[in-house]
Design goal:
11 helices, RpnA, 2 domains, Resolvase HTH domain-containing protein, six-stranded mixed sheet, 6 strands, alpha/beta
């Protein structure tokens, strides 16, 4: 791998943050990272993560399958799905509804009592204010109309606006998630992992963390095209830049068509059409 390729890749990575899927998927492999952010999201500072999985696939042969950005099993039995979303171009609430249904179904055995349906928490991190009420966090509750009595069926939905700064600890964490050179002593695991992925201290070598990111791409991947696509994504928010990058990843056999379609927030058939046009 040439020094020029390393430099271009470093420049590309330095534009990324935990809100970006490629960084989040690697960080979510770390149990301590998941534990640190969940303690803030759920306001439970004794929370303990027993198991965590990044890019957790739940396959359904006859129906639409899903890939969860991060899946965690907590000590108290709760199951948590964390999703990161940069683009505001899908029906987010219905996506959360579907993901929670597929996850719940996958956790139940045939004939098992409904009493054993696990508590599931869906945490949806958006780089925009999903409900446009200028809040950093939205907890969705089920209430009886007229009495406002809350009823709990074991499903919790939390939507987080990463772009809203209201002075809370959550906003501080979201600053680390979204701002290039923002770090916090209150979130040492998140801050250190982010820094390790983005920078090297000396020389022109990549850190081990950077190498893990680079392994997602093949060595012969055209870094210049990747950088241009990413710049379009970041600066202009254009779907074309994202799709072009994903098409290259699929062609190189790095991710599947299904995974690429999910990341582009389009159907598999639509993504396949893009792919056929480029072949």
């Amino acid at each position: 791998m040439s020094d020029r390729s390393i430099q271009k890749f470093k420049e590309y990575v330095q534009k990324l943050n935990p809100i970006d899927d490629i960084i989040f998927r690697k960080m979510a492999e770390n149990r301590e990272f998941c534990e640190e952010i969940l303690r803030t999201f759920l306001q439970d500072y004794q929370l303990k993560v027993l198991n965590n999985k990044s890019q957790y696939a739940i396959t359904n042969i006859e129906r639409r399958s899903v890939i969860l950005d991060a899946y965690c099993e907590l000590r108290d039995g709760r199951r948590v799905n964390i999703e990161v979303q940069n683009a505001d171009n899908v029906n987010h609430q219905k996506r959360v509804r579907y993901y929670s249904s597929v996850l719940t179904t996958s956790l139940m055995k045939k004939g098992e009592s409904f009493d054993n349906v696990p508590e599931v928490c869906m945490i949806y991190i958006c780089n925009f204010d999903i409900f446009k009420e200028n809040k950093s966090s939205y907890l969705i509750k089920r209430v009886i109309d007229g009495s406002n009595r809350e009823v709990d069926n074991g499903l919790k939905e939390i939507y987080i606006s990463a772009n809203i700064n209201d002075g809370t600890t959550l906003s501080e964490l979201m600053g680390v998630f979204t701002k290039d050179d923002c770090y916090s002593d209150n979130f040492p695991v998140t801050s250190k992992m982010k820094y390790d992925f983005k920078y090297v201290k000396e020389g022109n070598k990549m850190t081990d963390a950077m190498k893990e990111l680079y392994d997602i791409f093949k060595e012969d991947f055209d870094q210049e095209v990747l950088e241009k696509s990413k710049n379009k994504w970041i600066k202009e928010g254009r779907k074309e830049g994202v799709i072009n990058t994903l098409l290259m990843l699929v062609k190189d056999g790095i991710i599947s068509v299904e995974d690429a379609a999910k990341r582009a927030n389009i159907s598999v058939s639509t993504f396949q059409k893009y792919l056929n046009e480029k072949m």
